[in-house]
Design brief:
The structure is a single chain. The chain has helices at 33-53, 74-85, 107-117, 130-137, 153-167, 185-194, 214-222, 256-262, 304-322, and strands at residues 63-68, 89-93, 120-125, 142-147, 173-178, 200-205, 227-230, 242-245, 281-283. Strand 6 (200-205), helix 7 and strand 7 (227-230) form a beta-alpha-beta unit. Helix 1 crosses helix 9 (304-322), helix 2 (74-85) crosses helix 9 and helix 5 (153-167) crosses helix 6. Helices cover 34% and strands 14% of the residues. Residues 1-5 and 10-14 have low confidence and may be disordered. The protein has a five-stranded parallel beta sheet with strand order 7-6-5-8-9. The chain has nine helices and nine strands. It folds into two domains: 15-151 and 310-322, Aspartate/ornithine carbamoyltransferase (Rossmann fold); 153-308, 3-Layer(aba) Sandwich (Rossmann fold), CATH 3.40.50.1370. With 326 residues, it is α/β, with parallel strands linked by helices. Bound molecules: aspartic acid. Residues 146, 152, 185-186, 247, 285 line the site of aspartic acid. Aspartic acid (ASP) is lined by residues 146, 152, 185-186, 247, 285.
Length: 326
């Protein structure tokens, strides 16, 4: 990939990380700080190319199987757009009820089938650990697009790219995660990924029944990152550089009565945000339900729509990397 002098992530482009060729992307644990800088450098190039020419032929002739066992708007369509903007094509399987999965086919068999036709497989599945199972069955690269309440690594990569683009740094940050920290896989990946940076402080604000899992907190704690839990936002909002809001994950509750108790627990609106810094970013993996008021959308700190766009560039970068073209 050619580099340009406008890329702040230079030096990249010597293809020294061709190590990603053929690799699966299952967890953020696979990414070192250097790897992240590399992904961001390629994503930045992708952004420039999309702005200049829209579509180009880096992955011409390559095929992506986009296998989604759970609903998706952004992840599925951004992987499709990424592949098509790079000149490749896509086998979309969104409605598994119309595929052999509905006949009882196992995940490994479905994966083995798709890799006969495709060069890379993107998988979203309701069970934690499913992406690792798929990767074990496949010879071709598998990219985890969300495995139940486990991880959503490509989201965390685009989240950190967003922070970098919006605030210009990934060190020296206070990040407050708000909402459903128990079932929200995006925050599990993001907390782990942020723990690789310096002078990060993580605040977790959630109802008692939706706290960040101990397993994630232990891993992050081992990296020496200070973490604190709260049930309200007031105390931590003024010090927050990134407010990462999440949806209460209705579909993952065992008891619908529990969902009813916590569904409207937090609402971010212009009034609440008066207490926040002028220079900070409000992010959300989307879809939002009621947790961010639409009245806040025009505030310059509302980064969640830009965040979606950054996702395109990061996913283009990841596809190019695992297919040996970056
Ligand atoms: N789209 C994100 C996910 O798939 C967040 C969400 O659904 O709330 O995890």
């Amino acid at each position: 990939m050619p580099t340009t002098s406008t890329n702040p992530y230079l030096p990249f482009g010597e293809n020294k990380h061709a190590a990603w060729y053929g690799k699966d992307i299952i967890s953020v644990k696979q990414f070192s700080r250097d790897d992240l800088e590399y992904v961001f450098g390629v994503a930045h190039e992708m952004r420039g190319m999309v702005e200049r020419v829209g579509t180009f032929d880096l992955l011409k002739g390559k095929i992506l199987a986009n296998l989604f066992y759970e609903p998706s708007t952004r992840t599925s369509s951004s992987f499709t757009a990424s592949m098509e903007r790079l000149g490749g094509s896509v086998i979309p399987i969104n409605e598994v009820k119309y595929s052999s999965v509905s006949k009882g086919e196992s995940l490994p068999d479905t994966i083995r089938t798709l890799e006969c036709y495709a060069d890379v497989i993107v998988l979203r599945h309701p069970e934690t650990g499913s992406a690792a199972i798929a990767a074990k069955a496949a010879k071709k690269p598998v990219i985890n697009a969300g495995d139940g309440v486990g991880e959503h690594p490509t989201q965390a990569l685009l989240d950190t790219f967003t922070i970098m683009e919006e605030l210009g740094r990934l060190d020296n940050l206070t990040v407050t995660m708000l909402g459903d920290l128990k079932y929200g896989r995006t925050v599990h990946s993001l907390a782990r990924l942020l723990s690789k940076f310096n002078n990060i402080k993580l605040n977790y604000v959630s109802p008692d029944i939706l706290k960040m899992p101990k397993e994630v907190m232990d891993e992050v704690g081992e990296k020496g990152v200070p973490q604190a839990e709260f049930s309200t936002l007031e105390k931590v909002l003024p010090e927050t550089d990134v407010l990462y809001v999440t949806r209460v994950q209705k579909e993952r509750f065992e008891d619908p009565a529990d969902y009813e108790k916590v569904k409207g627990a937090y609402v971010i609106d212009p009034d609440v945000m008066k207490a926040a810094k002028k220079e900070m970013a409000v992010m959300h993996p989307l879809p939002r339900v009621t947790e961010i008021s639409t009245d806040f959308d025009d505030d310059p700190r509302a980064a969640y729509f830009r965040q979606m766009e950054y996702g395109l560039y990061v996913r283009m970068a990841l596809l190019a990397m695992v297919l040996g073209k970056a």
